[in-house]
Amino acid sequence: MKTISIFRYLLLSAVIAVVFSCKGDDGQDGNANVLTVKLQSSAITWTAGTYLARAANVFTLTEEHVDEDIIDHGTVLGYCYVAPQWIPLPFFWIGASAYLSVTHTYELNKIHLYAYSQTGVIDPNAIITEYRFMLITDKTVMKGASASQEILYNLRLAWVDVNNYYEVAEYFGVKE
After folding, report:
1. Is the peptide bond preceding residue 90 cis, with omega within 30 degrees of 0?
2. 176 CB contacts (<8 Å, ≥6 apart)?
3. Domain span including residue 60
4. Which residue, 93, 101, 102, 165, has most beta carbons within 10 Å?
5. Is residue 130 part of a domain?
6. Is-contact 168 160, C-beta < 8 A?
């Protein structure tokens, strides 16, 4: 009898948490806690550089919205468009004779893209036509967890696949 009451309480709590976690104040690009930055591949001029001590093409996007709030309480999820779908970064493509990898990092006011293969630098613009970055902030970080881990944890609790751009966008109310 007591077990059923506890189970009902936990189930009701979970339902309420999911319902209210999907709500947010409307902002410029959807939820006030999420901003989407779009970058066309045609706007990228790659330069020679390195990533993890490996030769790579590098592009740095200056983005003022990657501020202290994002650094301290958020994360930047990256996606690339490889027709006909959005793929999460890092993106790996294995061809007949080579592989391609594109990944991103971020720091205050900047988002960095890196493109490389086992044979050196590559230009992924023939495969990738657009990038989108979701800047997500959440000032309610669990003790002992990073903001990024907490945001990803909350998305998993809500059954949102962070590898699916459309699910994340829908969860946060981001409009195309």
Report:
1. yes
2. 169
3. 25-172
4. 102
5. yes
6. yes
**Beta bridge mates, 39:** 131
Cα gap 154→173, rounded to integer Å: 15
Task: Give the number of residues written for the chain.
Answer: 176
Is residue 15 one of the residues assigned to a domain?
A: no
Residue pair 93/5 in contact by the 8 Å Cβ criterion: no
Please state the domain count of the chain.
1
pTM confidence score? 0.73
Phi, psi of 79 (to 5 degrees): -140, 150
Q: Is residue 165 part of a domain?
A: yes
Residue 16 identity: I
Lookup: tokens for 112: 């960095």
Q: Which residues contact 138 (CB under 8 A, 6 or more apart)?
A: 33, 73, 74, 147, 150, 151, 154
Divide the 176 residues of the chain into consecutive groups of 10 and give the mean pLDDT of each group.
42 34 37 83 94 92 93 92 93 80 96 89 88 84 64 85 87 80
